[in-house]
Amino acid sequence: MIIHSLGIGGMERVMTILLHHFDKYEELELHLLLIGRKREVLQTIPNRTFIHKPNWPFDNSWRTWNTLKTLTFIRKKIKKIHPDTILSFGEMWNNLVLLSLIGLPYPVYISDRSKPEKDLGRLQNWLRGKLYPKAAGYIAQTKQAKKAAIKNKWNGNIRIIGNPIPQISCLDKPKEKIILSVGRLIPTKHFDRLVHIFHQCQVKDWKLVIVGGDAKQMQLSKQLKRQVQQLQMKNQIILTGAQHNVVSLYCRSAIFAFMSTSEGFPNVLGEAMAAGCACIAYDCMAGPADLIDHNKNGFLISEGDEKKFKDNLQLLIDNKDIQNRFSIAAQQKTLKFKPEIVAQKYFQFIIPNQ
To answer: Residue 225 and residue 193: Cα distance in Å, rounded?
Structure first.
């Protein structure tokens, strides 16, 4: 298993869930290579997992040299481990892994974890076109991701496998008048627009809770705080910052609002549905449409249509019956993404003879 790190992000959680599932097979020996800059382990992983990471810090001021050292590290380590199969996560990391293993006989299964056809830059796009066809298989998170892979001729062995969604038990805790949104504070999540829409709605005693920390050194939390202050809504709009455990908030929140326009597979949306939140989301290129069936288990709004988003959010706020209907149907939908089901699909794909 190869990934940049095991921090608190979505792809890291998926890799961790897969490790725990594969650990149940006593005949398997599990190795985890961490090849990113931080190489941190903030997830709990099985004791039987062997962890490998370079013993030198990645100095970005010497990026080319450190990248070459990482290529060498991957190649030497894989030859020493001599694995039966390899699973690699992440667009540019997949390029690095495939490049480092050219000429070696090991089957490498790869999965992109962000928006399909995301522009990686000229060099990385070129490498993806040349290297991805050499992989043993390609795991697409959504139907749109598979279409993109076929269109770009990235691989001839493609399997759609959505992300595992842990089943969240809220122990019949009553839902409160909370609208929740979760994600990194980056422009494509459009939290500023969500704040604007919440301000426009008739919200009475409702609260908007936004969970997420600053990312990519953009410091968007300061802008959001200023916006909330200018709207004089500090008592109704709460910015929690990054949180390691959001389960209690999922359980307490009646509504989950998601305005992201760039997704691979939105884990937070799936988790909110599993916790019985009534969800409303933009129908961005990939992800939400694989989870939400419009007007059955949530509202799916055309990307960028803020008026429709506001109108449907107001409808959810005002209508307890719709909240309850969506809540029940959303929980039912997530059962197909139970971790053991998804992990088994991975296992059968990357170890086809088992």
So the answer is: 13
The enclosing H or E element of 253 equals strand 253-258
pLDDT tens-digit readout, 147-157: 999 999 999 99
Helices of type H across the chain: 10-22, 63-81, 91-100, 122-131, 143-151, 191-200, 220-230, 247-252, 267-274, 288-291, 306-318, 320-333, 339-350
Which structure tokens are listed for 90? 């992440």
Stated pTM of the model: 0.87
C-alpha 178/C-alpha 1 separation (Å) is: 39
In single-letter form, the type of residue at position 176 comes to E
Helices and strands, counts by H and E, the chain: 13, 13
Return the bridge partners of 33, or none: 2, 52
Neighbours of 72 (CB within 10 A): 12
User: Cβ distance 210 to 237 under 8 Å?
Assistant: yes
pLDDT digits (tens, 9 = 90+) for 262-313: 888 999 999 999 999 999 999 988 889 999 999 999 999 999 999 999 999 9
| Rounded alpha-carbon distances, angstroms, from residue 16 to 4, 49, 74, 296 | 13, 11, 20, 31
- Residue located via tokens 């202050």: 229
Angle (nearest 5°) at CA 9 between 121 and 76: 65
